[in-house]
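We read letters as residues; the fold follows as tokens. Both lines appear below.
***
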Amino acid sequence: MLLNVREAAARLGLSKSTLDKMRCAGKGPRFIKSTDRAVRYDPIDLDAWIADRRRNKTSTD
């Protein structure tokens, strides 16, 4: 089942506004544009995006 922006933001612990900004900047998780205005997120893509950001330390070394 695909999630709308509010549901996806809640799952990620972000505000809808932050997720919107990330999407527009090309920095957020993958999304599906089902119509010109409707944006949906696959929970699998959200989980992959979270997993890709896991770190063992805070520095970039």
